[in-house]
TrEMBL record:
Name of the protein in its database record: Uncharacterized protein
Regions that span the bilayer: 249-271, 278-301
Top-rank taxon, per record: Eukaryota
Keyword terms, alphabetized: Membrane, Transmembrane, Transmembrane helix
Length: 302
Protein backbone atom coordinates (compact mmCIF):
# COMPACT_ATOMS: atom_id res chain seq x y z
CA UNK A 1 0.00 0.00 0.00
CA UNK A 2 1.46 3.32 -1.09
CA UNK A 3 -0.28 6.43 0.24
CA UNK A 4 0.91 9.83 -0.93
CA UNK A 5 -0.34 12.71 1.19
CA UNK A 6 1.59 15.43 -0.63
CA UNK A 7 4.59 15.83 -2.86
CA UNK A 8 6.96 14.46 -0.24
CA UNK A 9 4.73 13.04 2.49
CA UNK A 10 3.84 9.41 1.89
CA UNK A 11 3.33 6.13 3.73
CA UNK A 12 4.46 2.79 2.27
CA UNK A 13 2.95 -0.28 3.95
CA UNK A 14 3.77 -3.82 2.86
CA UNK A 15 1.58 -6.68 4.06
CA UNK A 16 3.63 -9.40 2.36
CA UNK A 17 6.85 -11.11 3.40
CA UNK A 18 8.57 -7.82 4.16
CA UNK A 19 5.89 -6.25 6.42
CA UNK A 20 7.35 -2.80 6.93
CA UNK A 21 6.16 0.80 6.98
CA UNK A 22 8.12 3.63 5.40
CA UNK A 23 6.88 7.08 6.43
CA UNK A 24 8.39 10.17 4.85
CA UNK A 25 7.46 13.28 6.81
CA UNK A 26 9.49 15.71 4.69
CA UNK A 27 12.20 15.69 2.10
CA UNK A 28 14.72 14.00 4.41
CA UNK A 29 12.76 13.06 7.53
CA UNK A 30 11.39 9.53 7.42
CA UNK A 31 10.76 6.53 9.65
CA UNK A 32 11.29 2.93 8.51
CA UNK A 33 9.73 0.24 10.71
CA UNK A 34 10.13 -3.47 10.05
CA UNK A 35 8.02 -6.07 11.87
CA UNK A 36 9.68 -9.17 10.44
CA UNK A 37 12.95 -10.91 11.31
CA UNK A 38 14.94 -7.68 11.46
CA UNK A 39 12.57 -5.60 13.66
CA UNK A 40 14.24 -2.21 13.48
CA UNK A 41 13.34 1.45 13.20
CA UNK A 42 15.34 3.82 11.02
CA UNK A 43 14.67 7.48 11.76
CA UNK A 44 16.34 10.17 9.69
CA UNK A 45 16.03 13.54 11.38
CA UNK A 46 18.13 15.47 8.86
CA UNK A 47 20.66 14.87 6.14
CA UNK A 48 23.23 13.39 8.54
CA UNK A 49 21.31 12.74 11.76
CA UNK A 50 20.12 9.13 11.89
CA UNK A 51 18.83 6.82 14.58
CA UNK A 52 18.90 3.06 13.92
CA UNK A 53 17.27 0.82 16.52
CA UNK A 54 17.34 -2.95 16.22
CA UNK A 55 15.40 -5.27 18.53
CA UNK A 56 16.94 -8.52 17.31
CA UNK A 57 20.65 -7.84 17.98
CA UNK A 58 19.51 -5.25 20.58
CA UNK A 59 21.60 -2.23 19.69
CA UNK A 60 21.07 1.44 18.94
CA UNK A 61 23.18 3.41 16.47
CA UNK A 62 22.67 7.17 16.78
CA UNK A 63 24.48 9.54 14.47
CA UNK A 64 24.18 13.04 15.91
CA UNK A 65 26.55 14.73 13.46
CA UNK A 66 29.24 13.85 10.97
CA UNK A 67 31.40 12.05 13.54
CA UNK A 68 29.34 11.94 16.74
CA UNK A 69 27.52 8.65 17.21
CA UNK A 70 26.55 6.25 19.97
CA UNK A 71 26.51 2.46 19.52
CA UNK A 72 24.82 0.54 22.34
CA UNK A 73 24.73 -3.27 22.29
CA UNK A 74 22.58 -5.00 24.92
CA UNK A 75 23.17 -8.56 23.73
CA UNK A 76 25.92 -11.00 24.73
CA UNK A 77 28.66 -8.42 24.31
CA UNK A 78 27.02 -5.61 26.35
CA UNK A 79 29.11 -2.58 25.44
CA UNK A 80 28.68 1.11 24.67
CA UNK A 81 30.83 2.86 22.07
CA UNK A 82 30.58 6.65 22.11
CA UNK A 83 32.56 8.67 19.59
CA UNK A 84 32.61 12.34 20.57
CA UNK A 85 35.09 13.43 17.91
CA UNK A 86 37.63 11.98 15.53
CA UNK A 87 39.70 10.39 18.32
CA UNK A 88 37.64 10.81 21.50
CA UNK A 89 35.63 7.70 22.27
CA UNK A 90 34.47 5.57 25.19
CA UNK A 91 34.22 1.77 25.01
CA UNK A 92 32.47 0.08 27.94
CA UNK A 93 32.14 -3.71 28.12
CA UNK A 94 29.95 -5.09 30.91
CA UNK A 95 30.19 -8.77 30.02
CA UNK A 96 32.79 -11.35 31.07
CA UNK A 97 35.69 -8.93 30.61
CA UNK A 98 34.16 -5.92 32.45
CA UNK A 99 36.44 -3.14 31.27
CA UNK A 100 36.20 0.50 30.24
CA UNK A 101 38.43 2.00 27.55
CA UNK A 102 38.33 5.79 27.36
CA UNK A 103 40.33 7.54 24.68
CA UNK A 104 40.61 11.31 25.11
CA UNK A 105 43.30 12.12 22.56
CA UNK A 106 45.96 10.44 20.47
CA UNK A 107 47.73 8.81 23.44
CA UNK A 108 45.61 9.55 26.53
CA UNK A 109 43.39 6.64 27.48
CA UNK A 110 42.18 4.75 30.53
CA UNK A 111 41.78 0.95 30.58
CA UNK A 112 39.91 -0.46 33.59
CA UNK A 113 39.45 -4.23 33.97
CA UNK A 114 37.15 -5.46 36.76
CA UNK A 115 37.37 -9.18 35.98
CA UNK A 116 39.88 -11.74 37.25
CA UNK A 117 42.82 -9.47 36.46
CA UNK A 118 41.47 -6.31 38.19
CA UNK A 119 43.85 -3.64 36.97
CA UNK A 120 43.79 -0.03 35.81
CA UNK A 121 46.04 1.21 33.01
CA UNK A 122 46.14 4.99 32.61
CA UNK A 123 48.26 6.55 29.87
CA UNK A 124 48.60 10.27 30.45
CA UNK A 125 51.08 10.94 27.64
CA UNK A 126 53.45 9.09 25.34
CA UNK A 127 55.50 7.73 28.26
CA UNK A 128 53.58 8.59 31.45
CA UNK A 129 51.30 5.77 32.54
CA UNK A 130 50.08 3.99 35.66
CA UNK A 131 49.39 0.25 35.92
CA UNK A 132 47.55 -0.88 39.06
CA UNK A 133 46.83 -4.56 39.67
CA UNK A 134 44.63 -5.50 42.66
CA UNK A 135 44.36 -9.27 42.16
CA UNK A 136 46.72 -12.06 43.24
CA UNK A 137 49.78 -10.05 42.25
CA UNK A 138 48.78 -6.77 44.00
CA UNK A 139 51.28 -4.44 42.40
CA UNK A 140 51.40 -0.87 41.11
CA UNK A 141 53.52 0.17 38.13
CA UNK A 142 53.92 3.92 37.65
CA UNK A 143 55.91 5.26 34.72
CA UNK A 144 56.71 8.98 34.92
CA UNK A 145 59.16 9.40 32.06
CA UNK A 146 61.20 7.43 29.54
CA UNK A 147 63.37 5.61 32.10
CA UNK A 148 62.01 6.51 35.56
CA UNK A 149 59.31 4.23 36.89
CA UNK A 150 58.10 2.83 40.20
CA UNK A 151 57.14 -0.85 40.66
CA UNK A 152 55.41 -1.77 43.94
CA UNK A 153 54.74 -5.44 44.74
CA UNK A 154 52.54 -6.43 47.70
CA UNK A 155 52.89 -10.23 47.49
CA UNK A 156 54.72 -12.98 45.62
CA UNK A 157 53.72 -12.67 41.99
CA UNK A 158 56.76 -14.37 40.38
CA UNK A 159 57.45 -12.07 37.47
CA UNK A 160 60.42 -10.69 35.60
CA UNK A 161 61.13 -7.00 34.85
CA UNK A 162 63.77 -6.32 32.19
CA UNK A 163 64.89 -2.78 31.34
CA UNK A 164 66.82 -2.84 28.06
CA UNK A 165 67.43 0.89 27.69
CA UNK A 166 66.08 4.23 28.82
CA UNK A 167 62.64 3.40 27.42
CA UNK A 168 62.80 -0.28 26.37
CA UNK A 169 61.56 -2.66 29.06
CA UNK A 170 59.82 -6.01 29.29
CA UNK A 171 57.47 -6.96 32.15
CA UNK A 172 56.46 -10.62 32.28
CA UNK A 173 54.02 -11.87 34.89
CA UNK A 174 53.33 -15.60 35.33
CA UNK A 175 50.93 -15.57 38.30
CA UNK A 176 47.14 -15.33 38.55
CA UNK A 177 46.93 -12.72 35.82
CA UNK A 178 49.40 -14.42 33.41
CA UNK A 179 50.17 -11.45 31.22
CA UNK A 180 53.12 -10.07 29.32
CA UNK A 181 53.79 -6.33 29.06
CA UNK A 182 56.46 -5.34 26.54
CA UNK A 183 57.46 -1.69 26.24
CA UNK A 184 59.59 -1.03 23.18
CA UNK A 185 59.71 2.76 23.36
CA UNK A 186 57.89 5.68 24.93
CA UNK A 187 54.48 4.63 23.62
CA UNK A 188 54.96 1.29 21.84
CA UNK A 189 54.02 -1.67 23.99
CA UNK A 190 52.24 -5.01 23.84
CA UNK A 191 49.97 -6.23 26.65
CA UNK A 192 48.90 -9.87 26.46
CA UNK A 193 46.54 -11.38 29.03
CA UNK A 194 45.84 -15.11 29.21
CA UNK A 195 43.42 -15.06 32.15
CA UNK A 196 39.66 -14.46 32.34
CA UNK A 197 39.91 -11.53 29.94
CA UNK A 198 42.10 -13.23 27.29
CA UNK A 199 42.88 -10.19 25.17
CA UNK A 200 45.83 -8.61 23.45
CA UNK A 201 46.43 -4.84 23.49
CA UNK A 202 49.06 -3.62 21.05
CA UNK A 203 49.97 0.07 20.85
CA UNK A 204 52.05 0.80 17.78
CA UNK A 205 52.15 4.60 18.07
CA UNK A 206 50.48 7.44 19.92
CA UNK A 207 47.06 6.49 18.57
CA UNK A 208 47.56 3.26 16.59
CA UNK A 209 46.66 0.22 18.65
CA UNK A 210 44.95 -3.14 18.30
CA UNK A 211 42.70 -4.58 21.01
CA UNK A 212 41.76 -8.21 20.52
CA UNK A 213 39.40 -9.89 22.95
CA UNK A 214 38.79 -13.64 22.79
CA UNK A 215 36.29 -13.98 25.66
CA UNK A 216 32.50 -13.53 25.77
CA UNK A 217 32.58 -10.53 23.44
CA UNK A 218 35.04 -11.93 20.84
CA UNK A 219 35.80 -8.67 19.07
CA UNK A 220 38.74 -6.96 17.46
CA UNK A 221 39.24 -3.18 17.71
CA UNK A 222 41.89 -1.80 15.38
CA UNK A 223 42.72 1.91 15.42
CA UNK A 224 44.77 2.98 12.41
CA UNK A 225 44.83 6.69 13.14
CA UNK A 226 42.97 9.45 14.92
CA UNK A 227 39.64 8.41 13.40
CA UNK A 228 40.31 5.29 11.31
CA UNK A 229 39.43 2.09 13.09
CA UNK A 230 37.75 -1.26 12.54
CA UNK A 231 35.47 -2.91 15.12
CA UNK A 232 34.67 -6.55 14.44
CA UNK A 233 32.33 -8.54 16.68
CA UNK A 234 32.06 -12.31 16.39
CA UNK A 235 29.36 -12.73 19.05
CA UNK A 236 25.59 -12.30 18.91
CA UNK A 237 25.80 -9.18 16.75
CA UNK A 238 28.44 -10.31 14.21
CA UNK A 239 29.07 -6.95 12.56
CA UNK A 240 31.91 -4.89 11.22
CA UNK A 241 32.08 -1.13 11.83
CA UNK A 242 34.69 0.72 9.77
CA UNK A 243 35.19 4.45 10.19
CA UNK A 244 37.35 5.97 7.47
CA UNK A 245 37.03 9.62 8.43
CA UNK A 246 34.86 11.96 10.46
CA UNK A 247 31.67 11.05 8.58
CA UNK A 248 32.55 8.17 6.26
CA UNK A 249 31.86 4.79 7.78
CA UNK A 250 30.58 1.36 6.82
CA UNK A 251 28.37 -0.74 9.12
CA UNK A 252 27.93 -4.36 8.09
CA UNK A 253 25.67 -6.71 10.02
CA UNK A 254 25.65 -10.44 9.36
CA UNK A 255 23.01 -11.34 11.97
CA UNK A 256 19.19 -11.32 11.81
CA UNK A 257 19.06 -8.05 9.89
CA UNK A 258 21.90 -8.67 7.38
CA UNK A 259 22.35 -5.16 6.06
CA UNK A 260 25.09 -2.81 4.97
CA UNK A 261 24.99 0.90 5.80
CA UNK A 262 27.53 3.00 3.90
CA UNK A 263 27.75 6.73 4.57
CA UNK A 264 29.86 8.54 2.00
CA UNK A 265 29.11 12.08 3.17
CA UNK A 266 26.60 14.02 5.21
CA UNK A 267 23.90 13.38 2.59
CA UNK A 268 25.01 10.47 0.43
CA UNK A 269 24.54 7.02 1.92
CA UNK A 270 23.48 3.56 0.83
CA UNK A 271 21.38 1.23 3.00
CA UNK A 272 21.18 -2.35 1.77
CA UNK A 273 18.98 -4.84 3.62
CA UNK A 274 19.24 -8.49 2.62
CA UNK A 275 16.66 -9.82 5.08
CA UNK A 276 12.88 -10.25 4.77
CA UNK A 277 12.43 -6.96 2.91
CA UNK A 278 15.48 -7.21 0.57
CA UNK A 279 15.70 -3.59 -0.48
CA UNK A 280 18.30 -1.01 -1.35
CA UNK A 281 17.89 2.61 -0.24
CA UNK A 282 20.26 5.10 -1.84
CA UNK A 283 20.11 8.75 -0.81
CA UNK A 284 22.04 11.02 -3.14
CA UNK A 285 21.03 14.32 -1.55
CA UNK A 286 18.37 15.76 0.72
CA UNK A 287 15.58 15.13 -1.81
CA UNK A 288 16.77 12.62 -4.39
CA UNK A 289 16.87 8.97 -3.38
CA UNK A 290 16.29 5.56 -4.90
CA UNK A 291 14.36 2.78 -3.14
CA UNK A 292 14.64 -0.64 -4.76
CA UNK A 293 12.65 -3.59 -3.42
CA UNK A 294 13.35 -7.16 -4.49
CA UNK A 295 10.51 -8.73 -2.52
CA UNK A 296 6.89 -9.52 -3.40
CA UNK A 297 6.44 -6.17 -5.13
CA UNK A 298 9.71 -5.87 -7.09
CA UNK A 299 9.64 -2.16 -7.83
CA UNK A 300 11.95 0.80 -8.05
CA UNK A 301 10.96 4.13 -6.48
CA UNK A 302 12.99 7.11 -7.65
Amino acid sequence: ILTLDSASHFILTLDSASHFILTLDSASHFILTLDSASHFILTLDSASHVILTLDSPHFILTLDSASHFILTLDSASHFILTLDSASHFILTLNSASHFILTHHCASHFILTLDSASHFILTLDSASHFTLTHNCASHFILTHHCASHFILTLHCASHFIVTLDSASHSILTHHCASHFILTLHCASHFILTLHCASHFILTLNSASNFILTHHCASHFILTLHGASHYILTLHCASHFILTLHCASHFILTLHCASHFILTLHSAFHFILTLHCASHFILTLHCAFHFILTLHCAFHFILT
